Amino acid sequence: MKKVVVLDYGSGNLRSAERALARVGADVTVTADRDAALEADGLVVPGVGAFAHCMRELRAVDGPRTIGRRLAGGRPVLGICVGMQVLFERGVEHGHDAEGCGEWPGTVEQLEAPVLPHMGWNRVEVPEGSVLFDGLADERFYFVHSYGVREFTLGQDGPPSRLAPPKVTWAEHGDRFVAGVENAALSATQFHPEKSGDAGAQLLTNWLATL
Questions:
Q1: Where are the active-site residues found (predicted)?
Q2: Does the annotation count 89 as an active-site position?
Q3: Can you tell me the distance from the alpha carbon of 159 to that of 22, in angstroms, rounded to the nearest whole number?
Q4: What is d(CA 167, CA 146) in angstroms, rounded to the nearest whole number?
C-alpha cells in the first residue's frame, strides 16, 4: 500500500481528497508535517481560493521547499486545482501579481470566457502516451475555476534535450487552458479528480501506480 500525504496548509478539499485516495487503495495522511511530506511515497498538494492566499499559506508550512526537495529526489508530487496553479511562476488575480513556486514557467490569469467561473463537467485533450490519463481520453472531469494557464512553454523551445518534454492536457471554456501536466515526478490537474466520479478515481489509481 502506497503512503500518500495530503499537504494540509489551510487550503483545499483536504477530506474529499483523503477519502478519494483511500478509496483507490492509498494509505493517506493529512498533515503539514514536513518530514512526513518528504518521506511519503507521494505528496498531494490541494488548493482552492485565491492564488496569493494559497501561496502565503503554503509558505507558512515551508511547502515550496518541501515540493522542491521531493522533486530534486525524483519523488512524486500531484497538484490539484489551485494546487496546480501555484506550481507555476506567477498568478495575476484581482490586479494582484503573486509569485508562485516556479516549478514551471507560466502565468495563471483569468480566462477569457463568456461565463465565469467555469463550473461543471468538461472533456479534455489528452496527449499521446499519457500515463495519468491512461484509458480516460473520452471521459469528462469536474472543474471549478475562473483562472488558468493559457500557454505552456516548457519543452516547446530551445535546443534538444535528453529529458522527455512535459505531457500537457488541454481543455476549453471560452479559452483553451492547461487541464493537466505530467512532467517527470511532477503531475497536476486543474480539475478536481476527487469530485470526478469513476474517471477521477481511475486517474488517481493511475497516479498511485507511478509511485
A1: 81 (nucleophile), 192, 194
A2: no
A3: 42
A4: 23
Strands 42-45 and 77-80: parallel
User: Comparing C-alpha atoms, which of 108, 14, 3 is closest to residue 61?
Assistant: 14
What count of other Cβ atoms lies within 10 Å of the Cβ of residue 202? Answer: 19
Per the annotation, the verdict on 145 as an active-site residue is: no
Task: Mark whether 194 is an active-site residue.
Answer: yes
Give the Cα separation of 75 and 103 in Å (integer). Answer: 14
Cell output for 136 = 480516460
Q: What's residue 155's pLDDT?
A: 75
Q: How many Cβ atoms sit within 10 Å of the Cβ of residue 98?
A: 17
Helix (H, G, I), strand (E, B) or coil at 67: helix
Q: Which of 18, 54, 81, 173 is catalytic?
A: 81
Provide the grid cell at 50.
485565491
Question: Contact 43/67 with Cβ under 8 angstroms?
Answer: yes
Q: Is the Cβ–Cβ distance between 111 and 75 less than 8 Å? A: no
3-state SS assignment for residue 164: coil
Interval 93-134: pLDDT, tens: 988 899 999 999 999 999 999 999 999 999 999 999 999 999
Q: What burial letters (b/e) apply to 149-186, b meaning 16+ CB within 10 Å?
A: bbebebeeeeeeeeeeebbbbbbebeeebbbbbbbebb
Dig out the grid coordinates for 24 from the structure.
483507490
